[in-house]
Design brief:
By secondary structure, this protein is an all-alpha fold. The protein contains 4 helices and no strands. The longest helix has 16 residues. Bound molecules: zinc ion. The site of zinc ion (ZN) has 5 residues, from loops.
């Protein structure tokens, strides 16, 4: 039986086990859920890619306004921290 109701609850449970240096065992249903969410997280753009997407001036170098807005977007929705 599932012990979590929301993704935030599942994330907290997994992180708490990790901090306690305990292993995590997932049911097949939860493993599929976690795997699909990790795959989605890996395809999110980086902060710099978000800045380039939202820049209306097509700045050759990223402007401060676009980087600031990209930071807010990434803080709210997450981003790919790789690269
Ligand atoms: Zn810009």
């Amino acid at each position: 039986m599932r012990k979590w109701k929301t993704i935030e609850e599942l994330a907290s449970m997994i992180a708490a086990r990790g901090h306690a240096r305990k292993t995590v065992t997932l049911t097949s249903e939860t493993a599929i859920f976690v795997g699909s969410h990790l795959r989605t997280a890996a395809t999110k753009p980086t902060r710099n890619e978000v800045a380039k997407i939202i820049c209306r001036n097509s700045c050759s170098e990223m402007c401060v306004l676009c980087v600031g807005l990209a930071n807010k977007i990434c803080n709210a929705y997450g981003n790919n921290i790789e690269g």
